Amino acid sequence: MTAKLTNSRTYKKLFYRLFFIMLFCGIGYILIYPLIYIFTTAVKSPADMLDTTTVWIAKKPTYTNFLDAWGYIEYIKSLINTVMIAVSVTVLNLAVCSTIGYGFARFKFRERGLIFALVVFTIIVPPQVIGLPQYIYFLQFDIFGIFKNTLGGTINFNNTLAPFILPAVFGQGLKSGLFIYIFRQFYRGMPVELEEAGYIDGCGTFKTYLRIMVPSATPAFTTVGLLSFVWHWNEVFNQAQYMTNNPTLSMRLVGIVGYITKSSQVTDLSYVVPTKYAGVALVILPLIIVYLIGQKFFVEGIERSGIVG
Fold it and tell me: Which fold has domain 73-254?
């Protein structure tokens, strides 16, 4: 009887292990498949595209697709514009959202729940809803008529970083509500004794936050930094509105087929498709490198902030 029970438990453990292995492999395939398809298609020559027997591994691989895509999307110029937006806004999000999140986590003030509910509400409001009034506002920027009365007119912030920086400064940038929520949840999970020890040593509130809480919140900072960087790297809607004369990588990538057919007068899909995917690979490659560097802290930050789904 004991032997049968032991065998039954062994079979159950084996079944669960096989089930989770199959589930892990299935999810991994779904996630990795797009990357495999992008990079394998990017190295295919026109002959490989026309060969029906070539599926994954190119028989006549070529790397000229990357060189052509590099030129079509003006990679260096577009990369500089993209990095300026992504890095500047990410730094501001880390500074502003972490401070706001710490305030929600540790301080009790009147209408805290209502204000935090409004912050959470900004997460579900799509940027397209406020896109038009925001565009008009930055096109004719003024503060209570001060600039118009003193300078004789409003300020046009089109083709500048101001439409991205100003909302981030006030915690209203792209996904800032989510970042505040992540920091709030993370700080709420930290022991209060850390701050009490700082107060005993003579640190004030702000000094305790900078000296004790910020160094302890490395996973949260890494998580928010990665999310903010990736979202602003891939974002197209706001960039297409405000950066018409200084296109970013995502804007160039959206119109890469038009650049290929217009510049080279080539409409053959056996050339256009691999070149397009080569451009996709060039755009996402920096993101892959950044994620590989910070993925350990990213996973830890997600777990400790309590975000699921």
Answer: MetI-like fold (1.10.3720)
